[in-house]
Amino acid sequence: MSAPAVNIYDVIVIGTGPVGQTVAGAAIAAGLGVAAVERELVGGECGYWACIPSKAMLRPVVALADARRVAGARQAVTGAADAAAVLGRRDLYVNNWDDDGPAKALRSTGVELVRGHGRLDGLRRVTVEKPDGESVTLTARRAVAICTGSRPALPELAGLDEVRSWTNREATGSRTVPGRLAIVGGGGVGVEMATAWSGLGADVTLLAQADGLLPRMEPFAGEIVGRALADAGVDVRIGATVTALHRAGGTGPVTLILENGAEVEADEVLFATGREPNTFDIGLQTVGLVAGSWLDVDDTCMVRALEDGWLYALGDVNHHALLTHQGKYQARIAGAAIAARAAGEPLDTAAWGAHAVTADYLAVPQVLFCDPPAAAVGLTADQAERAGHRIRVVDIDPGQNVIGARLYADNYTGRARMVVDEDSGYLLGATFVGPGVEELIHSATMAVAGQVPVARLWHAVPCFPSISEVWLRLLEAYHGQHHA
Amino acid sequence: MSAPAVNIYDVIVIGTGPVGQTVAGAAIAAGLGVAAVERELVGGECGYWACIPSKAMLRPVVALADARRVAGARQAVTGAADAAAVLGRRDLYVNNWDDDGPAKALRSTGVELVRGHGRLDGLRRVTVEKPDGESVTLTARRAVAICTGSRPALPELAGLDEVRSWTNREATGSRTVPGRLAIVGGGGVGVEMATAWSGLGADVTLLAQADGLLPRMEPFAGEIVGRALADAGVDVRIGATVTALHRAGGTGPVTLILENGAEVEADEVLFATGREPNTFDIGLQTVGLVAGSWLDVDDTCMVRALEDGWLYALGDVNHHALLTHQGKYQARIAGAAIAARAAGEPLDTAAWGAHAVTADYLAVPQVLFCDPPAAAVGLTADQAERAGHRIRVVDIDPGQNVIGARLYADNYTGRARMVVDEDSGYLLGATFVGPGVEELIHSATMAVAGQVPVARLWHAVPCFPSISEVWLRLLEAYHGQHHA
Question: Which residues of chain B lie closer than 8 angstroms to A67, CB-CB?
Answer without folding.
Answer: 60, 63-64, 66-67, 73, 77
